[in-house]
């Protein structure tokens, strides 16, 4: 087995955990009035128990659109 095949799952896992942590940090800095579709407590449950899928949901349907000032 090559080195790439041995390390690829670990790199993928670390990337997923980093994405999840970044999503939680972004969520914690977002005011509730700017969140789309669900209230803060629902998003907290989705992000906590949904892991990477919850993070994807946050970025696609929960996070407020970015402002270009």
How do the helices and strands line up, and which of them pair or pack?
Blueprint: H1 3-29, H2 40-62
Describe the structure.
This protein is mostly helical. The protein contains two helices and no strands. The longest helix has 27 residues, at 3-29. The model has no long low-confidence stretch (mean pLDDT 89). It has one domain. Helices cover 72% and strands 0% of the residues. α1 crosses α2. The chain is elongated. The protein starts with a helix and ends in a 7-residue tail after the last helix.
Sum up the structure in keywords.
69 residues, 2 helices, 0% strand, mainly alpha, elongated
In short:
The protein is mainly alpha-helical and 69 residues long. The protein has helices spanning 3-29, 40-62.
Stretches where pLDDT falls below 50 for ≥5 residues?
none
The averaged pLDDT comes out at 89
Count of β-strands: 0
Instruction: Kindly name the structural category.
Output: mainly alpha
Shape: elongated
Rg, rounded, reads 15 Å
Largest sheet: none
Q: State the share of residues found in helices, binned by percent.
A: over 70%
């Amino acid at each position: 087995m090559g080195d790439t095949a041995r390390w690829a799952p670990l790199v993928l896992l670390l990337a997923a955990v980093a994405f999840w942590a970044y999503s939680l940090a972004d969520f914690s800095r977002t005011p509730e009035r700017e969140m789309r579709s669900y209230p803060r407590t629902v998003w907290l449950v989705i992000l906590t128990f949904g892991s990477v899928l919850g993070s994807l949901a946050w970025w696609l349907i929960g996070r407020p659109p970015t402002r270009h000032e």
